[in-house]
Amino acid sequence: QVQAVESGGGLVQDGGSLRLSCAASGRTFSSYAMGWFRQVPGKEREFVAAVTWTGSSTYYVPSVKGRFTISRNNAKNTVYLQMSSLKPEDTAVYYCAEGAVIAGTLVPFGSWGQGTQVTVSS
Fold first, then answer.
1. CA separation for the pair 45, 39 (Å, rounded)
2. In this predicted model, what pLDDT tens digit does every residue of 69-119 receive, in sequence order?
3. What CA–CA distance (Å, rounded) separates 94 from 120?
4. Cα–Cα dist 50/34, whole Å
5. Is residue 66 over pLDDT 80?
6. Other C-beta atoms within 10 Å of 75: how many?
7. Can you tell me the distance from the alpha carbon of 28 to that of 65, in angstroms, rounded to the nearest whole number?
8. Which of the 8 DSSP states describes residue 16?
9. CB-CB contact of 39 with 46 (8 Å)
């Protein structure tokens, strides 16, 4: 089981950019899809983006398509989320997870990390 450590969050103004990183330990995650989720208080965790284990296919929730880019470096056991044109509604705690891509979304398995807070001010 992969243990994920997310980093790179912070406070950014509307229209700004951030790059999140997720470093995995425990074993190599290269055999599985990886993805990002986000959660705001009082709401369920939401799928944001996923990348297949080869990195050849990516999937996004419509609200971030064209603004966010997911990528991975299997040699470094790391997955990234480059976020541009950020909006206040992107404010959330962001988590990464491994899982299986089904119907264009990631079905996660395993435990969640601590997450990283992203706050976009208007």
1. 4
2. 999 999 888 999 999 999 999 999 999 999 999 999 999 987 888 999 999
3. 13
4. 6
5. yes
6. 8
7. 28
8. -
9. yes
